[in-house]
Design a protein that fits this description.
Elements lengths: L37 H7 L4 H26 L28 H10 L3 E2 L3 E2 L7 E9 L8 E11 L3 H4 L6 E8 L5 H6 L19 E4 L9 E8 L6 E9 L4 E10 L6 E3 L8 E5 L8 E8 L7 E5 L10 H11 L3 H14 L6 H22 L5 H10 L3 H10 L1 H12 L4 H12 L4 H15 L1 H9 L6 H17 L12 E8 L23 E11 L4 E3 L12 H9 L6 E7 L5 E14 L2 E8 L15 E3 L4 E4 L4 E2 H7 L1 H17 L11 H8 L3 E5 L8 E6 L1 H7 L17 E5 L5 E4 L8 E8 L6 E5 L4 E7 L4 E2 L1
Antiparallel strand pairs: 1-3, 2-3, 3-4, 4-5, 6-7, 7-8, 8-9, 10-11, 11-12, 12-13, 14-15, 14-20, 15-16, 15-19, 17-18, 17-20, 18-19, 21-27, 22-23, 23-24, 24-25, 25-26, 27-28, 28-29, 29-30
């Protein structure tokens, strides 16, 4: 360095002097005069700005590494980001700060917390390496489907040598997700029509099942469907969950609801190589499909999202395209799709990606409405409804003009319309105000809903309507005036339950029709059915057979009965047949006439031929019921043994009551009642259902007993074994919360049996649908008499 300092050299002592005769080589160096203090200032001049930076950076790194070390010791998950920059051999094991467990140990720990472990679902081909574990919890004050999903967990197999060498597999908890069902307001909103106000119900509904989407899902990750079903009706709801293997996390991607109970499915819609998720929210003949595309998202922990294809944004700046979207939004799917096909052809088969997606969504709806319109409908009103929804204006007019009866029935349909047909006609007139068929239908619906004055004013305001077209429309309106929409008006939906029997001959004079001039004729492939009504709702209350107080007037008895039964707007009835394998088959028939004779009410219906049960006593009779008649209630069965663990004392008393009842009916030998242990051994696996049937907030117990089960109790008793078993169907005993028998099929009449449990509109307690030797009957609990009547 420039100013290097040297220490002064001391004088050599004598012992350090060279010996005589030796020459000493002296090297002279130039010396600079050192100022006082120069060595100190030189030392202080060493650090520069860069030196300070190095010192500070070093201190920061030391502190950072110290902090990372602390985090790694106490919570390794906090330093997971380091794995993105570390080589594979130096990866930090995450989530492994707890000791791994076997599946049995995991299940035991969760059961100690009163949690119920569901069935494991594989995340990869080898289920031993990783799996999804659903966690359930029992719901309080529950009668059926009492286990609700509360959490999802992902477990991964330990790769550490200590555990990999064990005979059982050990797993670490990789990630977990708390689960809450969708709110009831969200679930019921999809089943409301446009005129109803959604209810503000914030109660979360339980999720009861976890399913994996196996086929057709996007290649990256694993998709799951969390499912719940409404106890009343056929609706379903749930969440779609995505497992991201790159980030090892679970994501809730979508909440869904379906009024018709259809589950979401992956299918090819847009043709871009990736399947879309389709949620079917169709109600009746009104199609409603939600289609979601998988789209990338620039988030580290959520790289993708489900994005709905919507028609609210116009994806192409073209007036014709905008008109097509406008009529599609109103529900005219097929005309909109045909228009879009023409637009695409004009553009040489190329549309922007967003416009093509909208077109594919419209095509999907059009396929449904086309299928409905091409079906053979038993009722003219249903046929016209399907045609109008599909935009088949001319074909619908042909049905309207076919007969006076058709005109009357269709007029009632138009009068009851809640904007769905009205909106379609308005949208169609907006894009083409001069189309005759649409003008005719708009005039008809205007006449039945707002009166003749509004109709005439509207017709006069049409600038391009010709005299011939005006005469044609006025002729259609005359059919309404002649047949009258006021002749029959029903303010309540038909709710009818009865027993169906095919018949071969019909005498017209024995039946009452709304239009007496119409002949009772069958179309191709139809047969006659007679429905003996067991019960129906007259708009105020339920009436049961025999109908003692149902007196038809001398004038217009047919109109009176059709109005009372509520079959004016929708004269359809479902015929339910049970096949030998237990499967239900439903056939739709059209009600053509009614008959009230000797307090017995019968309907005459025409429909396709149903399978014959060949007088099999074990097969239920064909059942007839209208669409709004009832809702089936099916509590989930459990075994007596499981019920015993929940209510030990109650089951002991119940088994004694059941055995006494079987003795009284002669099914088991009289004498001493076996011990509880003996009965439990024989009856423990019998299925039971728990549900409140008497509306006292306390559940009743429904015990269904097969012929084989009875035979097992009478192994020493001849006459029950062998072929006789095949002649006995399942029978039911219902016990109250005080363990008294309040219903039994063991009455000596083997032909009586409980067919189903149902919820009736306007009735607080549930009803029993009981089949006997001749017909079906509805029995409801009587608070006064404390029995089913």
């Amino acid at each position: 360095m420039a100013n290097r300092s040297r220490k002064p050299t001391p004088k050599a002592s004598k012992q350090n002097q060279p010996h005589a005769g030796m020459r000493k080589r002296v090297v002279k160096k130039p010396q600079k005069k050192l100022k006082r203090g120069s060595w100190l200032s030189s030392t202080l001049a060493i650090p520069t700005v860069a030196s300070y930076a190095i010192l500070l950076s070093s201190a920061s790194l030391i502190m950072a590494f110290a902090w990372i070390s602390v985090l790694f010791i106490f919570n390794p998950d906090q330093v997971s980001w380091l794995n993105k920059i570390l080589p594979a051999w130096a990866q930090i094991p995450l989530g492994n700060h707890e000791r791994p467990q076997t599946l049995k140990q995991i299940q035991l720990d969760l059961s100690k917390k009163n949690q119920i472990v569901g069935e494991t679902l594989p995340l990869h081909q080898d289920a031993k390496n990783s799996f999804l574990l659903p966690i359930f919890q029992k719901r309080a004050n529950c009668e059926s489907d009492c286990e609700k999903l509360i959490e999802l967990r992902v477990y991964q197999r330990s790769e550490e040598l200590e555990f990999k060498s064990q005979s059982e597999n050990y797993y670490y908890l990789a990630t977990q997700l708390s689960v809450t069902g969708p709110e009831e307001s969200f679930v019921i909103s999809s089943s409301l029509d446009g005129t109803s106000e959604p209810q503000d119900i914030s109660i979360p509904l339980p999720l009861t099942e976890v399913q994996r989407f196996d086929d057709g899902t996007p290649s990256l990750g694993v998709w799951f469907n969390l499912l719940g079903k409404r106890q009343q009706g056929t609706g379903a709801y749930g969440h779609v969950i995505y497992y991201n293997p790159e980030r090892t996390n679970l994501l809730q991607m979508l909440s869904w609801t379906s009024p018709n109970g259809q589950l979401p499915k992956w299918q090819q819609v847009t043709g871009d190589g990736t399947k879309e998720l389709v949620v079917d929210q169709t109600v009746g003949l009104e199609p409603h499909l939600q289609v979601y595309q998988v789209k990338p998202l620039k988030l580290f922990f959520k790289p993708i999202q489900l994005e709905a294809i919507t028609l609210q944004t116009v994806a192409l700046n073209d007036s014709a395209y905008q008109n097509a979207l406008s009529i599609a939004r109103s529900g005219l799917w097929t005309p909109a799709f045909e228009w879009l096909k023409f637009i695409k052809k004009q553009r040489k088969g190329v549309l922007p990606e967003a416009a093509q997606a909208q077109m594919d969504l419209i095509r999907l709806h059009s396929q449904l409405t086309k299928t409905q319109a091409q079906k053979k409908w038993a009722s003219p009103s249903q046929e016209v409804l399907a045609d109008l929804i599909d935009g088949r204006w001319g074909k619908a007019l042909q049905v309207f003009e076919a007969s006076p009866h058709n005109a009357q029935e269709i007029a009632t349909l138009l009068k009851a319309d809640e904007k769905r047909l009205w909106n379609r006609m308005v949208a169609a007139l907006r894009v083409n105000p001069n189309r005759l068929e649409v003008q005719a239908w708009f005039a008809l619906i205007l006449a039945v809903q707002r009166g003749e004055g509004h109709t005439n004013s509207w017709l006069k305001a049409q600038p391009k309507i010709t005299k011939d077209d005006l005469a044609y429309i006025q002729g259609l309106l005359a059919r309404l005036n002649n047949e009258g929409t006021s002749g029959i008006s029903s303010t309540h939906p038909s709710q009818i339950v009865g027993t169906v029997q095919p018949i071969t001959q019909v005498t017209s004079t024995q039946w009452l029709q709304p239009n007496s001039s119409t002949d009772l004729k069958l179309t191709d492939n139809q047969v006659w059915y007679q429905v003996e009504v067991s019960a129906f709702h007259d708009g105020k209350r339920w009436l049961n057979s025999p109908f003692e107080n149902l007196n038809q007037p001398k004038t217009s008895p047919a109109k009176f009965l059709w109005t009372t039964l509520g079959i004016t707007s929708n004269p359809e009835i479902q015929i339910v047949v049970w096949l030998p394998n237990g499967e239900q088959q439903i056939t739709i028939a059209a009600i053509k006439a009614v008959q009230l004779r000797g307090k017995v009410l019968r309907l005459l219906a025409a429909g396709p031929k149903i399978p014959e049960n060949q007088n099999d006593v074990l097969q239920p009779k064909p059942l007839g019921l209208t669409n709004a008649a009832l809702e089936w209630v099916q509590p989930s069965p459990i075994t007596l043994q499981k019920l015993y663990r929940q209510n030990t004392q109650g089951v002991k008393v119940m088994l004694s009551s059941v055995w006494k009842s079987l003795q009284q009916s002669g099914e088991v030998p009289a004498g001493a009642i076996p011990t509880f242990e003996q009965m439990q051994e024989k009856l423990g696996d019998w299925p039971v259902q728990v549900i409140d049937l008497t509306n006292n907030v306390q559940p009743e117990i429904i015990l269904t007993i097969s012929a084989e089960a009875i035979a097992s109790l009478n192994q020493s008793k001849p006459g029950i074994q062998g072929e006789n078993i095949e002649q006995h169907h399942d029978r039911t005993i219902i016990l109250s919360d005080s363990n008294e028998v309040i219903y039994t099929d063991f009455t000596g009449n083997d032909l009586q049996r409980l067919a189903a449990i149902a919820k009736l509109s306007g009735v607080q307690s549930l009803a029993l649908l009981v089949e006997n030797a001749h017909n079906y009957r509805l029995r409801r609990w009587s608070e006064k008499n404390q029995r089913f009547e």
